[in-house]
Design brief:
secreted; 8-stranded mixed barrel; about 425 residues; EC 4.2.1.11; single chain; binds magnesium ion; binds phosphoenolpyruvate; metal-binding; alpha/beta; glycolysis
Length: about 425
Amino acid sequence: MMTIAKILGQEVLDSRGNPTVEVHIFLNSGIVGRAIVPSGASTGEKEAVELRDGEKRYGGKGVRKAVANVNDVIGPALEGMNITDQRAIDYKMIELDGTDNKGKLGANAILGVSLAAAHTAAAALGIPLYRYIGGVNSAILPVPCMNVINGGVHAQNSVDFQEFKIAPHNAPDFETAIQIGEECFHALKQVLHDKGHNTGVGDEGGYAPDLKSNDEAVEFILRAIEKAGYTPGDDVSICLDPATSEMYKDGGYFFFSSTEETKSADDMVRLWEDWMNKYPIVLLEDGLGENDWEGWKTLTDTLGDKVELVGDDIFCTNPAILQQAIDKGIGNSILIKLNQIGTLTETLETIELANRNNYNCYVSHRSGETEDTTIADLTVGIGCGHLKTGSGCRSERVAKFNQLLRIERELGSAAKYAGIGAFKNVK
Ligand SMILES: C=C(OP(=O)(O)O)C(=O)O
Ligand SMILES: [Mg+2]
């Protein structure tokens, strides 16, 4: 009943029109599960390797080699295995690949199979994916951190920092939080439009206006929160991902979209301290670059007891790197991107390591996404209380919100909304 009969990989499109890997797993019983792999643009150097062909397909480089690896190498090796043996399935693929970074078979091939296995197992057991991942206590609905202004490498505008997000934490439930978030998002469109700004959106669905400064992005958002009838800080706070690894050049931080000035790590820490004092910021991701561990230490010592400091590019969802950060006292939270490490099992190992060491976990989409909603279930399964998955206007992002709405309704009175308590060290 639970035995893998066939694994089928194929090429489909992501939200940028680039090819990506989709995997179906068929069981002997006729049950089938499916997953699609996302793709990043501002990637960390130590991410597992996404296998791409030289040849162009659709809008970008093809994934036909990765698909062939699913069909010709991984599939035959996993046929006959029990679908609920997630760890055995994942470790078998790690062994087949044999590299440290999944560069032989491709993390996109391996993750597609790993996630499809979890979906298929949940379907075979007749339980929702979040419960399969997290067990009977999976009941916490996350604060949706909605990316409402896009800059950096996710938009062609004058804003250096990549993501300005709103966190509607003061809500009784997830559905109300989405309502508040959408009201603020729509109010932001109006306040930008009133000042003559473009309201076209970037890769993650946030507006991508040409603003005078990075500060102005926050100020527009605060105005929008108020216009929607909410109080910044009390009802809705701000989360940032400036993605500063993209700005790190010759030991400094180059403001490539705006002033073209370069700031030192100490200047950046002062900038973030100043922003924490003047704006209601509850989370800062990649406030410094992935290779600037010294700067990260200063940042953590300066702000780590007041705000959630999330490592994305610097940690790459990798347990070995996270262990080094724990030993050195770097950051207090880790971004969880399944395709940075390449299997569900290793992702859960990283999450367990973070939990044991008092680090928060913050689940994330990629800038290249699809209709796949695995991260919504993962977030509820691990109960980490917050996720980022774009704004509320692009279907590949809304798909995750819709799945969370479904989960909340399914849980009924058992569902709990995470609220402000989800954010590390925020008083
Ligand atoms: C989601 C992000 O972007 P990308 O997927 O391009 O890495 C990020 O940097 O957190
Ligand atoms: Mg990031």
